Amino acid sequence: MPGWTLSIDFGTSNTAAAYRRHGGDPVAIRLSDQAEQMPSAVLVTPDDVWVGSKAVRSARLHPDGFERSPKRLIGQDSVLLGGREVPVVTLVAAVLRAVAARASRVGGDDRPDAVLLTHPQDWAEPRREVLRAAAVEAGFAAEAVRLVSEPVAAVAYYAHTTPLPADRTVAVFDFGGGTCDVALLRGAKNATALHVLASAGADPLGGDVFDHVLLTAVLRRLEERDRGDLVRALGDPANARAVQAFRNDVREAKHELSEHEHASIPVVVGDTEEMVTITATEFDELIAPHVRRAVDLTTQTLAQAGLAAADLHALYLTGGSSYLRAVQRELVALLGRPFATLGDPKLVVALGAHHAVLAPAPQPVPQPVPQPVPQRAPEPAPRAELPARKAASEAVPDAPDGPDGLSAAAQRVLTANPALAAALAATTDGPAVIDDVLTLVALMCVPDLVERVTAEPALLSRLRRANTVLEVPNEPVKGVPLPVRVFLGDSAAWTGAFRTAAARRTWDEEHSPGGMWATRMLRTWCTATPQERRQIFDTPKWQRWAPTEAHYPDGYHSADPPEPDLVALSPTTVRPSAAAPRDRNLPRPQHPSAQQQPYLRDLAELYAGGSPGMGLEAVSRPMPDLAAQVLHHLGDLPAVRRCPVEVMGVGLTGYKSELLFYPAQGDRPPAVVIPFPGLMLATITGTPGWNGSPIILTADVVTGVAIRVSWGNVHRRVVVSTVSRPGATCPPPGGEVHLRGGQLTDLANRVRAHLGRR
Amino acid sequence: MTHPVPARVALLCDQVAPLLDDAGREAAAAVRGGLAEPLRLAVVGRVKAGKSTLVNALVGRRIAPTAAGECTRVVTWYRYGAPERAEVELRDGTRRDLPLVDGRLPEQLGLPDADVARIVVHLQAGALREHTVIDTPGLATLTADNEAATRQAVLGAGDPAGGSSDAGQADAVLFVFREAERQDEIAFLQQFRAATGELGASAVNAVGVLSQADLFDGVDVDPFVAADGQAARLATARAPDVSAVVAVSGLLAETARTGRIREQDARVLAAAADVPEQRLRLRHRLPLPDDVDAPALERLYPVLGNYGVHRGRERAGAGAHHLVGWLESVSGIARVEELLRRSLLSRAHALKAMRALTVLSRASQRAGADAALALIEQARLDPALHPVRELRALRLLVAEAPGSPLRASLEQVSADTTDTARLGLPDEASADEIADTARRQAAAAQSQSAFALMPAEVEAGRVLARSYQLIARRARP
User: Fold this and answer.
1) Residues forming a β-bridge with A533
2) What letter would DSSP give residue B72?
3) How many CA atoms lie within 13 Å of B221's alpha carbon, on the beta-carbon side?
4) Residue A602 vs residue A380, higher pLDDT
5) Which of A62, A287, A348, A611 gives 20 to 30 Å between its CA and that of B201?
6) Residue of A677, A669, A658, A656 whose CA lies nearest to A701
7) C-beta of residue B244 within 8 angstroms of C-beta of residue B344
8) Is the CB of B56 inside 8 Å of chain A's CB atoms?
9) Residue A730 near residue A696 (C-beta atoms within 8 A)
């Protein structure tokens, strides 16, 4: 039987473990039925000590014997649990023993050659000693037990795949269930010789806090909805089981919100059930102060060591809470560039412990390795008016990307400018620094920028950090337009096409100075299939390739001549592939009313959307007719139940649409559905007001139908006003929809009659 | 040193000091020396918030200059000592005697501010036996020049280079709020918290007073009633920063406590008793009735304020003694002292231990002394220093879940009283009774911890259970 090594990351909230067979890679051990990890909780019953999920599930039975985080007790001799004085070592040993039992099944025997226990950086000898004693009590041989500090294990995990250059500092940001710890380490030749420069922790700050914040928000929503009775029922000890279920659902929802745009949380007490929806944006706002604290902790730690964020070679994330998008966004902003996450952040410490103690064979560190591309690309802050759908950005064909993780567009620029590629490869940030829409646009439009960066490769990182504005001179230049030269300079067909002054003039008139051209080209290139790229490369016919939709980069400002155009680089990265092809999904109304719900159910397929597809065809495909889709999903209507109208904004002309008068059918109450695609601005605030399609007007959302004169433009309009339901997006709280068409009195009466209003 | 908390900290200082560098040894010595001293209370507030007036009232002497002269721009320590004297400590380490002018600190020091480290005043004032008062420069905002001075003087935070400056700083903070809480006052508090970090003001080591309560705008309402309402609102709004806020009139308290009312002043006031208040307000335009000594009355306005003069007239008939008694009771100073006793002095040992542990940890980290860190951790985990853990849990709880039912129990347990008082048992309770009650309460606290939603509550329940466990163990070892 070959020897094996076991590592245990005994955490504040959760415990993870990994094993490694001689010479192999460390593998995580599945510690509970649902997940790799298990809760670190213990439950002392009159005749036993239960641990993990079993302890959590049964806490209700012996509440005075339950301890969620035995790790926090480490240091005190004993604890009164379940009426007994239990030594803390025994509790910790119980958890370790449970891990050992699972591990021996995969390890083959119960005598691992080494047992690696990880501990927080700030633990001094007395607490480490407790951990050691617990391991011995759990049945491990004393001489096999070794301790590894958590940040050292994390760094070792990353350093194993991409060796650290000597004398560079890395940061470990460990954001777990109970605490947030930041450590700065500097490596020598191998991971075992890591030296901790500074460390700091915040306690409690982590997943448990976020759970609580989310839970309180859900309860608040219920109160607002006049379901305070449910909130009070949850406070009743008789409903402990319901509370438990509710807490689990909240935790699930939190996980969901790190990947989806909204999550629905059921609140079930007895026979009553209410659904509360929380959007990702709302969640981000809720947790913002706590995320801020975590980021401030990082800043303070850096200050303690006398370093700036820019001095870091890399920032490594570990712990479950580092999954949250808000956390990643803030850290990217702090760092000014993406950071490294590899694999499951919850397992990094357990896996890395193996690398930390087994000094890797000394490897030459040739060049500082390019910044590892994050597995989960940090997304730009979601724009309020376009709810970004994960489905869309994931379906973007990222596959044609190069082997080193660069987008196709960035690859193209590097291929066309080999000198630039060589210069960037020698920097610490690597060529990844150009893989950003605005940076690429700047390279394509700012005269001499490519040359300057080639001469001074660090320039781009500096410009992106400093958020500098670059001027694009509006002077007429002859020959091949700069954007074409930078992007397709190695294509004889494209450079040849601009030999004549006339061709250049035409291009200038249409595209000069080229920011728009560049952006569209970047996105077209990333969207195109490899065959299409070949065709674009060989055929200098812009119009054939340009997708129909215009993309405006946020940092690009087109000035009126002779003022120069401006490009502002940003520390945030927007990958050229991130935005195209456009999301085809319709925004689903949030917080639907009871009567709207059956309609939304029948429209579910519509909201699910579909893959945006591949290639240019997918990008330029027109939006399908919404009315037809609605009729398809909700059932066809005779002409007499359809009534053409104009949906009015502030202007004199409205948007052509129609009213679909759906009668009561099955569990669906009567409704007036307006298949109006897209957003309607709330005219007073200028913010998107009606964010949902189609507009479904049911009796429980309409408060009045009136004919009003708009004094802004002396129009008579039918005004449908709606109820104030906080959080609802369609109709938004207290919104109005203005309609015109045919006889206004008839129109108004018809809507009233249909919705049962007199 | 019989109290277990300072005894344990003193032991730690002795153990750790030899492992540290020079600066660290100095810090450890200062911490050890401070253990036997009264609690150090820093009075912090914005410019012209009435800090010095309040300090005078607390000390019972008109010693602090109240005009915005140089002395109010320098940190001043008032400590118990005889003979009464004042000295200036300069940044270069030298000291000079500072002659008092009519028993008061001079308005001018005759030295550049920048050279002065602090002024130390030794007074034989009973109040200073309980706490040393540190008067700090008024702050416009923490971004002003004196930021560093006050920050360092009060909390010794944020100065990684200065080893010795860690020592000799404040254990607790008295915030002086002025009038209504304004937006910049909130910002000030937040900056103060951010700048001071772990040792900063929080509900366990800070209380607030709303000064100048006599000036409150009460339309048809007594200004003190209006001020009380405002103080209650402040206390709710600033729950994480201060454990309570009370309204006080520093001016009336100072006047009452420092013997500024003579019998003849009472007579002057009494003579004006029947003059309508409106008439008094217009005294500069309309002459007062002949039986009122107008110049003498005018001299009382700066001493008593409008409120003191106008409302004091009806109390003055019974003589100066009666008037002073009324001034003292109406000023609210007794409530401030009660608050200090209840919230801060009852935790003095734990507060000092908390600061001592932080100072020692910093010194050890700076010196890279792992053995020292291990000793400090051992001390932190020692049951004798459990009160420090209680304070930490309490601070968290008040910051995150001020309405938690665990708060009252934690406050009760963390106060420096007897175990019977901590459990709410009569003094004569037997050891078995104490042990049984404590074990029962420990189980209850652990259950609350199991079902609590908020992490701070979970920790509070856990710490509370430990407190009861230790009580049980003390009762029946």
Assistant:
1) none
2) G
3) 14
4) A602
5) A287
6) A669
7) no
8) no
9) yes
